[in-house]
Amino acid sequence: MRLIPKEIESLWTLFTAPTIWALHFLVCYITAAIYCAKAGAAPFSFEAMRLALGTVTVAALAGIALSAFLAWRQWGFGSGDPPHDEPTRKDRMLFQGFATLLLSGLSFVAVLFVSVPLVFIGTCQP
C-alpha cells in the first residue's frame, strides 16, 4: 500500500516546488522587511524571527523534497533516460516527472540561497 497515491501526480505537481519557493521567498522577505521597518516595536526579538523563518525554511525544504520524491516516482525512479519525446502517454508522464524533478532541485537550491541571510545577518541594518 502506498502512502501517497499515484493519482496525485498530475500537471499541477510540475508547479508545486516553484510555488513553495515563491511562497517561502515572500514570507522571508516580507517578514524581515516589516520587522526591520518597525525595529524596536515588535513584541519578539530578532533571534525569534530568525528561528521562525528557519522553521519556515525547513518546512519549505521538506515540501520540495516530497515534490522531488513524487517526481522521481513519476519518472519511474530514473528507469528511462531522456529525451522522452515520443507522442505517447507514457513518454509524456516520464517527461513531466523528469521536468518536475529538475524544477524541484532548482527550487531546493533557491530556498537555500534565500535562507543565507538568516545565517549571516545578526540584526537589522539601518
Give a description of the structure.
The chain has 126 residues and is mostly helical. The protein has a domain at 56-113. It contains three helices and no strands. It is elongated.
Query: Unreliable runs, pLDDT <50, ≥5 residues?
Result: none
Give the terminus-to-terminus CA distance: 55 Å
Count of runs of 4 or more consecutive helical residues: 3
Give the overall shape.
Answer: elongated
Number of strands: 0
As a percent range, the share of strand residues is under 5%
Radius of gyration: 19 Å
Helix/strand-derived class?
A: mainly alpha
Largest sheet: none
What is the arithmetic mean of pLDDT?
82
Share of residues in helices:
55-70%
Order of helices and strands: HHH
SSE blueprint:
Layout: H1 13-37, H2 46-74, H3 89-120
Keywords for this structure?
126 residues, mainly alpha, 68% helix
Structure described in brief:
It comes from Shinella fusca. The protein is built from 3 helices and no strands. The protein has 126 residues and is an all-alpha fold.
